Amino acid sequence: MSAAPAVEISSLVKRYGTVSAVDGLSLRVAAGSITAVIGPNGAGKTTTIEICEGFRRPDSGVVRVLGLDPSRDGAALRPRVGVMLQEGAGFYPGARPAELLTHLARLHAHPLDVAMLMSRVGLGDLRAPLRRLSGGERQRVALAAALVGRPELVFLDEPTAGLDPAARRSTWALLAELRSAGVTVVLTTHLIDEAERLADHVVIVDAGRVLAEGTPAELTSGVSDDVIRFGGPPRLDVASLRAALPDGAVVREVTPGAYEVAAVVDPRLLATLTSWCAANDILAEGLQVGHRSLEDVYLELIGAGRSAP
């Protein structure tokens, strides 16, 4: 018998006036997993997470977090759930990291050791007040604040925003350790490669609805597994190129001057592509053959012209 989900949402609706921020969204988060929620700005990600955290009430639908209703059972849930807001939002700016974390630790029955936690998230013995910290340092404080109470479940809002590459990898490793320890992680991220590399389950949302979900491998599998990427002048005649290629090939200009051909890649396809470029006096710069990424899937679902997730 499978374990009960850590988070279960069914037909969730949240409106602000005439605007539906969340419009019938449903999803399940497996216990002990890392789930990434991605989508364009205004897709309903933050509203959904804030309802799960108990900060907002749904207009309709069912939300269960660790089997409880976050609107009704907040007092029972708070000791079991960690919440990370971006860059320490809501924290007193004059507090020093150790002071803040020590205060939060005293609110929990079995907190983590503050000095150990600060070291683990890369804060060391940082003594400056929050208002003097960099954005990346405030992110680390916010992450430590979410973890200090030994939560069973953590909600993380952009956990690696503002971090340098080394700190970002270190945070990934820490989140993987949490998963190994049985902690459930739900995160939103603007970094699609982060979702692809880190998450067990990815949920793509737009207009308050789930467009697609699954493991990264499930989302990136399909007929168009292979992708050819190349650069050239902006606004090439992609319709002409598509007509020259074998049936089923999909051609698009991802950004001005950056092109992708999604198809089953074989010598004939490559020869046709390079012949078309030569016939049109186009140098295909940096031509690469690879597999479809989560970003490819995201752009197919959302559209290349939409805002970042």
From TrEMBL:
Membrane topology value: Peripheral membrane protein
Sorted UniProt keywords: Antibiotic resistance, ATP-binding, Cell membrane, Membrane, Nucleotide-binding, Translocase, Transport
Keyword Membrane among UniProt keywords: yes
PROSITE patterns assigned to the protein according to its UniProt record, in alphabetical order: ABC_TRANSPORTER_1, ABC_TRANSPORTER_2
One Pfam family cited in the UniProt record for this chain: ABC_tran
Domain ABC transporter: 7-232
Biological process terms in GO annotation: response to antibiotic
Localisation per UniProt entry: Cell membrane
Domain of life: Bacteria
Protein name (Swiss-Prot/TrEMBL): ABC transporter ATP-binding protein
